[in-house]
Amino acid sequence: MTLALAHRIAPAPGADGDGGLVAGLLATAALIGLASLVGMTLLARGDVADIGLLYLVPVMFAAIRLGLRPGLAAGLLSSLCYNYFFIPPRFTLAVADPSHLITLVILLGVALVGSHMAARLRHQASLAQAQAGRDALLAGFAGRLMGVTRRDALWALLAEEVARQFGLRVLVAAADAQGIATLVAAHPAHDRLDLLEAAAAQWCLDSGRSAGPGGQVPTASEWLFLPVPGGQGPLAVVGVGNPDGELPLHGGQTPLLESLLAQAGLALARIALEEEKLALGRVQERERLRSALLSSIGHDLRTPLTTVLGTLRALRPLTPEQAAALASARGEAERLDRFVANLIEMVRLEIGALQRDPEPVDLAEACDAALDHLAPGGLVGPLELVVPEDLPLVLADPRLLHHCLINLIDNAVRHGGNGGIRIEALADPQGGVELAVCDRGPGLPPGEEERIFGMFTRLEGSDRQGGTGLGLAIVKGFAEAMGLAVTAANRAGGGARFALHVPPALVRPVAVPA
Which residues are bridge partners to 228 per DSSP? Predict the structure, then answer.
């Protein structure tokens, strides 16, 4: 009955304020009085055993529900009541038997232990409740972040959430293309960062440490800036300011804000990956369309072009004028045929369908075959061919090497001026072989030696403005497919020099008969 009454009149756990304390003390006094009445009833019936245990109920109630001091007060009051009503001599506070002091000590001990345990339980419950609230807050914020797909929307949501949770003014600054902290969101609205704010935000962005009042590095700014973490360093910074001019954050607020910023950092990383994926998809789609276009052009032109070439080769001129016109038409058709072949080979190279069948090749014979291929079109003018007879063989694909030489010679003839071309081959000191095609034109602009091998590249301000820009890209692609290297440079006496470099591993010395 005593426990039931205590449960009905006890205040709820964690009750705050003077009203709850007074109600608890009155309930404790009522329980002590009730325990005394029950004890008097038992004593009247001659049952005096363990009457002191009745007082444990109000003592435990006060200790657990109200805390240490009310519990000790309840223990002291219970001890006095037990001593006054039940310990001989009764109705006095004197203690004739010292053994009864043990009961008094037990009551006080119960109050002490019970209040201590209750305090720990209340503290743990408070921590658990705070953690649950924090987890719910972070989960809700993370759920809202999942629907954000743009950076500006992310910054606006972050500023609004921080302002709502902490009741502070909020600024968000992100790095621009030059790495300068720039205002991207604010709640409430904020026009721009002043000098102190910009300096603190920039320092926080560069160092990854909080800056401002209460931060790791104090500053003159009234705003506390914290970094938004990322895999490669801070991605942005968030500034918080107190409208009252006091410290923006107190106690356990900083870990919660850092958790919100970490969630924003993860969301920003996701948005960045989505942007990269979208950009990559556009690039892949563009490359696919270009490859499809090149393949379509190449194959659709090959059949009628073969017919035209066959007809031009079969025609026999009757007059010198017809011979000149026929030679011009045949030369242009041959050039168009090489262009279409370049398109088809470039598509094969890009999709990885290029077939390679390396075998020992004599560079002198390879140069002669390329010149014979170009001669009918009248494309080869003054020529100087310098290939030593004792030059070793090289391991290469004859078809791919033939295409490389045709494109290099054609490039030299078309862009090398009227001074003719020079084809030279020599062994280098490291044991490799170099085959170069030189012209006597204006040469290459400084610093463009690598870019000229790009697809559809035609250099402004040089002699390489005409043409399709595919020939040298074919040369580079085929050379690398065979394990060779290709370089471009200007000659000391004027003109350009394009060289194929055969590494020592692909050189095959010629066996000398005994």
Answer: 236
Q: Quick check: 77 and 35 in contact, CB under 8 A?
A: no
Spans of the chain below 70 pLDDT: 1-19, 46-50, 95-97, 99-100, 103-104, 107, 111, 130-131, 133, 135, 245, 251, 291, 294-295, 297-299, 350-354, 376-381, 417-419, 455-469, 510-514
CB 503 within 8 Å of CB 427: no
Among the listed residues 211, 266, 214, 280, the one whose alpha carbon sits nearest the alpha carbon of residue 242: 214
- Which residues, in sequence order, are bridge partners of residue 507? 394
- What pLDDT score does 285 carry? 83
- Indicate if the alpha-carbon torsion angle 485, 490, 496, 497 is positive or negative: negative
The model carries a pTM of: 0.47
What pLDDT, on the 0 to 100 scale, is given for residue 289?
78
pLDDT value at residue 132: 72
Nearest to 396 by CA among 476, 473, 498, 480: 480
Chain length of the chain: 514
pLDDT for 130-141, tens place per residue? 667 676 777 777
* pLDDT value at residue 434: 93
Cβ-based neighbours of 115, under 8 Å, separated by 6 or more: 62, 63, 64, 67, 68, 70, 71, 72
Residue 395, C-beta contacts closer than 8 angstroms, at least 6 positions apart: 358, 359, 360, 361, 506, 507, 508
Residue with tokens 């391991």: 395
* Distance, first Cα to last Cα, the chain: 125
- Indicate the pairing of strand 383-386 with strand 421-427: parallel
Whether the CA torsion 308, 312, 313, 314 is positive or negative: it is positive
Whole-angstrom Cα distance, residue 405 to residue 439? 14
Q: How far, in Å, are 33, 191, 204, 387 from residue 219 at the CA level?
A: 63, 21, 11, 74
Rounded-to-integer distance, Cα 425 and Cα 109, Å: 105
Complete DSSP assignment for 287-298:
HHHHHHHHHHHH
Q: Is the peptide bond before 89 cis (omega within 30 degrees of 0)?
A: yes
Segments of 161-288 assigned E as strands: 169-175, 181-187, 224-228, 236-241
Per-residue model confidence (pLDDT) at position 469 = 60
Q: What is the pLDDT of residue 415?
A: 77
The answer to whether 239 touches 171, Cβ cutoff 8 Å, is yes
